[in-house]
Amino acid sequence: MSQVLNSALAASTAIDNLIADLEQASSTLELLRATGALARTADPRAAAALVQVLGFNNPGAAVAAVDGLIAIGSPAVDHLLELDPRNYGARAWAVRALAGIGDVRGLALLIEALLTDVGPSVRRAAAKGLGSLQLDALPADERTDIEQRCLQALVEASSDGEWVVRYAVVVGLEGLALGSGWSSDHPSCGRTCAALQRLDATAVEEAAVVRLRAGLALRRLQPS
Fold first, then answer.
1. Which position among 76, 93, 104, 118 has the lowest Cβ density within 10 Å, counted as fewest Cβ atoms?
2. 95 and 122 in contact (C-beta within 8 Å)?
3. Sign of the CA dihedral 43, 49, 101, 61?
4. 24-83 confidence digits (pLDDT tens)
5. Which stretches within the chain are classed as H helix?
6. Mean pLDDT for the chain overall
């Protein structure tokens, strides 16, 4: 028992030291290195410190922090949702982290980001995230409600002005339909395929890469 306690104490001390290194970083390079080291632990105790990095206006460190938060997973979600909504930069990175984690608690923020954020890369991340939420453990009625909210947001975003976002919407729609297990005659699958068909039409979608991806999604959802 004492050996287990000693190991736990040593691990806790190591995390504390890494957090201290991050807090004491005095240059961009030091911050990047400290963030990377802390992120690689994937330890839930690192979540709060990594979330703070998202607001430091340091893209390299923010990328490392997002990777670490995704590795931590659900224990990081509450910290991400507590970010000040007035800090746009931090919230934009938080959207990327929440999309990668797939926890349903991030649903409202992902929908808001997809439909209202000014950054195409943020909307793109949100679209992909809405197609890959982890819903299996939810009661059937709650899962159905969330699936419909995701579908509605993705259909609305299928007319986004940026092709990279529309491409991500295609990926999100396909992921949502496959993850939900909708049969080809399910109303929601029909609505999904209708949105994909619009994005597969030359008269509607100008970006060839989006049309190609929409066509692939349709073939996967409606196999001959």
1. 118
2. yes
3. negative
4. 998 999 999 999 999 999 999 999 999 999 999 899 999 999 999 999 999 999 999 999
5. 2-23, 28-39, 47-53, 59-72, 77-81, 88-101, 107-116, 120-130, 140-157, 163-180, 187-199, 208-221
6. 93
pLDDT of 194 over the 70 cut: yes
**DSSP code of 57?**
S
- In terms of residue numbers, what domain contains 1? 1-101
CB distance 188 to 151 below 8 Å: yes
* Rg for the chain, CA atoms, rounded: 20
Q: What's the rounded Cα separation, in Å, for the pair 179 and 117?
A: 26
Q: How far apart are CA 22 and CA 33, in angstroms?
A: 8
Task: With a cut of 60, say whether residue 183 has pLDDT above it.
Answer: yes
pTM for the model stands at 0.90
Cα torsion for 58, 113, 172, 157, to the nearest 10°? -130
Provide the residue type at 130 as one letter. L
Same domain, 210 and 109: yes
Question: Of 38, 72, 101, which residue is a domain's last?
Answer: 101
Separation CA 154–CA 176 (nearest Å): 10
Provide the number of structural domains found in the chain.
2
CA 131 to CA 178: how far, in whole Å? 9
